[in-house]
Write a structure and sequence with these properties.
Layout: H1 3-21, H2 30-38, H3 47-58, H4 67-84, E1 94-95, E2 98-99, H5 101-104, H6 107-127, H7 133-147, H8 152-165, H9 169-194, H10 199-223, H11 232-236, H12 238-255, H13 264-275
Antiparallel strand pairs: 1-2
Helix pairs in contact: 1-3, 1-4, 2-6, 3-4, 3-9, 3-13, 4-6, 4-7, 4-9, 6-7, 7-9, 8-9, 9-10, 10-12, 10-13, 12-13
Length: 278
């Protein structure tokens, strides 16, 4: 299966929903709303939303049942990128071939735009779609945990420490598990939850998401060797890091082997996440 084609096809659904839930760029305060949209459109590959939709398919539901959590995850992801780019974090001036939000607007507006995207994400997850309220609540809880102190934010704190002071392979991988894999896992488990997946399926998909998420970060580090001060490549070398990524991928794929053809998009996206070339 062509993972890129799948993402392109599914991104049409996601982009339509993102456009519907985001305030219009010209609506007051225009600077805030423009900044909120700046990094969302045009977006990246929409891998995380794609995984959410594919997870719903894997457990036997139409992909659009997972659209609320797919959209919310992309909003959270964009929040994290805006804040990562700030001068007090990575101090990046370009993202996806465009000026970063704090460069295109200003630092205060970028900070507030990220805050607004995070709040909107939870509103979307809780209020959109036709899934029962209890399932929407559970999927939103999953996303909130992934975004917070035990997930993405905590991983970013340790990433900043690691960049200054270094860390061994176990510490680096724990950062990847929180800063990268937690949100990917929330997308997958959240999509399956909205599709009505049973608890054993959610736990199986949670293990799948964790493995794919860490492998995804390893793949990023292998593509950009030397650019990240805190990476598994730096801790153990390219060959060992690549081997670790393959082990994680094999373990993840084993978790979804029993799902059959319905999980083919999920498997294809996992392979793409680790083995992409750019």
């Amino acid at each position: 299966m062509d993972a890129r084609a799948y993402l392109v096809e599914r991104s049409v659904l996601v982009d339509r929903e993102l456009d519907a839930v985001l305030p219009a760029a010209g609506a007051p305060p225009a600077s805030l709303h423009g900044a909120m949209r700046h990094l969302v459109f045009p977006g990246g590959k929409r891998l995380r939303p794609g995984l959410a939709l594919a997870a719903a398919e894997a457990v036997g539901s139409p992909p659009d049942v997972a659209l609320p959590i797919a959209t919310a995850v992309e909003l959270v992801h964009t929040w994290s990128l805006i804040h990562d780019d700030l001068p007090c974090m990575d101090d990046d001036v370009e993202r996806r071939g465009r000026p970063t939000v704090h460069v295109a607007y200003d630092e205060a507006t970028a900070l507030l735009a990220g805050d607004a995207l995070l709040a909107l994400a939870f509103e979307v997850a809780l209020s959109r779609g036709a899934a029962p309220a209890a399932l929407r609540l559970e999927a939103t809880r999953e996303l909130a945990t992934a975004a917070g102190a035990v997930g993405l934010v905590g991983g970013q704190v340790d990433d900043l420490f690691c960049a200054r002071s270094g860390g061994d392979a176990a510490f680096v991988e724990s950062i990847h598990a929180r800063k990268t894999a937690a949100l990917i896992t929330a997308a997958i488990v959240g999509g399956a939850t909205l599709a009505g997946a049973a608890e054993p399926d959610r736990e199986r998909l949670r293990r799948f998401g964790l493995g794919v998420g860490v492998a995804f970060q390893i793949a990023d580090d292998l593509l950009d060797v030397g650019e990240d001060a805190c990476s598994l490549v730096g801790a153990v070398g390219e060959e060992a890091a690549r081997a670790r990524g393959e082990v994680l991928l094999d373990s993840a794929l084993a978790e979804v082997a029993a799902y059959g053809a319905g999980a083919e998009p999920l498997r294809a996206l996992a392979l793409f996440a680790l083995r992409r070339k750019e």
